[in-house]
Amino acid sequence: MTEPTQAAMQPFTVDIDTATGAMPGARNRLVRRASDLKGYYADGAALERLITEGDDPLHYEVFEVPVPEEAGQLMYCISKLQAGRVGDECFMTKGHYHTVESTAEIYICLQGEGYMLMKTRDGQSSCERMAKGRMVYVPPFWAHRSANTSATEPLVSFCVYPGDAGHNYGDIQTQGFPVRVFDRDGRISVEEC
Ligand SMILES: [Fe+2]
């Protein structure tokens, strides 16, 4: 395990607009468009139409002010998931386990509404509501994915997790999560799959 470099860093501050999630000092911006989510949605044909006829819309962005990815540090970011539907399914993130699976994560919802879907390798699953001002604690060993249930507003969260956690997309693309989140004619429905 990599240990923090002694006295290599100085304290610092970052401004975050808690109403919008804007973090002007962010230096890294991860962008996922619809075409990056192939294989993740129940209705693959609807996703293809969105890519080819819908101009491959922005799905989500992650803004970071990076710190060293090592034990002892705390990584943090703003996650901004757009509102949208693929067929009837709400826009969602890819989801991941942490590479170091014994690491937890905190999400504080700053804007919007949705769900955090979580699962473990031994078959447990959980689905927690996300809303402005609510924190979701993702324990160690739980894969996690968020879904935006708003029709119009982005789902914006501040996230913090151990610096050495890493990301492992593992079996998520092929096996997904035990539930999916749909918008059935304006009614949000969390359905087993
Ligand atoms: Fe994570």
Explain what the structure shows.
With 193 residues, this protein is mostly beta strands. It is 7% helix and 39% strand. The chain has 2 helices and 13 strands, in the order βαββββββββββαββ. The protein has helices at residues 44-52, 172-175, and strands at 28-33, 58-64, 74-81, 85-86, 89-90, 105-111, 113-119, 125-131, 135-138, 143-148, 155-162, 179-184, 187-192. The strands form 4 sheets. Strands 1-2-3-11-6-9 form a 6-stranded antiparallel β-sheet, with no helix packed on it. The chain is globular. The model has no long low-confidence stretch (mean pLDDT 94). Residues 96, 98, 105, 144, 161 line the site of fe (ii) ion (FE2).
Please state the CA-atom Rg, rounded to the nearest Å: 17 Å
Count every helix, treating DSSP H or I runs of 4 or more residues as helices: 2
The percent range for strand residues is: 35-45%
What's the pLDDT, averaged over the residues? Answer: 94
Helix content: under 10%
> Which segments are poorly predicted (pLDDT under 50) over 5 or more consecutive residues?
none
Sheet of most strands? 6 strands, antiparallel
Shape call? globular
The hetero molecules present are:
fe (ii) ion
Kindly name the structural category: mainly beta
Instruction: Describe the strand arrangement of the main beta sheet, using strand numbers.
Output: 1-2-3-11-6-9
